[in-house]
Write a structure and sequence with these properties.
Elements lengths: L5 E5 L6 H11 L3 E3 L3 E2 L14 E2 L2 H9 L3 E7 L2 E6 H9 L3 E5 L2 H11 L3 H6 E7 L3 H11 L4 H15 L7 E4 L3 H16 L12
Parallel strand pairs: 1-7, 1-8, 2-7, 3-4, 8-9
Antiparallel strand pairs: 3-6, 5-6
Helix pairs in contact: 1-8, 6-7
C-alpha cells in the first residue's frame, strides 16, 4: 500500500474551499480531516472534537509555548491552529490527512517539513483560487453574508494570497464545483501513485 499523504489545500476566502474539502472527504476512502483548534466560541450545531477543538485563549497560548502546534495564526481576532498530534496520529495509523488552512499556515507547515523528513515526504500542497479578481468579488457578493467593508478586506487579502501561488505544488483555478472536485481527486490519486510512496515488491 502507498504511504499516507498530507493533502494541504489553501485558498482565499469565498472560493469554495470548504465545499471541495467536504467532497474530497466523501470521495476518498482513508482520507481524514485534521481537526483545527480555535479560540472562538462554538456556533450553533458545532461539536467539540468534530468541527473544532475549542480552546480558551490561555490554553491556546500555553500549547503554542509547548511546541504542540504544526501551524497557528490569528484571524480576525481569533486564534486557529493545527496540532502536530492531529496529523501524526493519523499518519501513523495509515490514514491520509486533509489540511484546510490559509496561506500563512501553509508556509508554517512547509517550514516544519524542511526539518522533518516524514512530514516532507508526505506533504502535497494545492493553491485553489478563482481565475480573476472580478470572479472572486462576484462570489463574495453572491454569498450575501458580508458587509462592504468585509468584502473589500477579503479582496485585498485575496490579492496578497494569490501572489504566493508559486509556493505550492499545484494550482487549481476554480470552475464548477464538480470540475474543481474532479481536479482535486486527480491530484490526490496521482500523488498516491508516486514511486517514493510505494512499498511494492514484485512477488513470485
Amino acid at each position: 500500500m502507498p504511504s499516507p499523504i498530507i493533502f494541504l489545500i489553501s485558498a482565499p476566502s469565498g472560493v469554495g474551499k470548504t465545499t471541495v474539502c467536504q467532497g474530497l472527504l466523501a470521495a476518498q476512502t482513508g482520507l481524514q480531516r485534521a481537526v483545527t483548534c480555535t479560540t472562538r466560541a462554538p456556533r450553533p450545531g458545532e461539536m467539540a472534537g468534530v468541527d473544532y477543538h475549542f480552546l480558551d485563549p490561555d490554553e491556546f497560548v500555553r500549547r503554542v509555548g509547548q511546541g504542540e502546534f504544526l501551524e497557528h495564526a490569528e484571524v480576525y481576532g481569533r486564534r486557529y491552529g493545527t496540532l502536530k498530534s492531529e496529523v501524526s496520529s493519523r499518519l501513523e495509523a495509515g490514514f491520509d490527512v486533509l489540511l484546510n488552512i490559509d496561506v500563512q499556515g501553509a508556509a508554517s507547515v512547509r517550514s516544519a517539513a524542511a526539518t522533518e523528513p516524514m512530514l516532507a515526504a508526505a506533504l502535497v500542497t494545492v493553491f485553489y483560487t478563482t481565475g480573476s479578481q472580478a470572479e472572486m468579488e462576484s462570489r463574495l457578493r453572491g454569498r450575501a453574508a458580508d458587509s462592504e467593508e468585509v468584502i473589500q478586506r477579503r479582496l485585498a487579502e485575496a490579492r496578497v494570497e494569490a501572489s504566493r501561488w508559486r509556493e505550492f505544488d499545484y494550482l487549481v483555478l476554480s470552475g464548477s464545483r464538480e470540475e474543481d472536485l474532479r481536479r482535486m481527486r486527480v491530484i490526490f490519486e496521482a500523488e498516491k501513485l508516486r514511486r517514493h510512496r510505494s512499498t511494492f515488491e514484485f512477488g513470485a
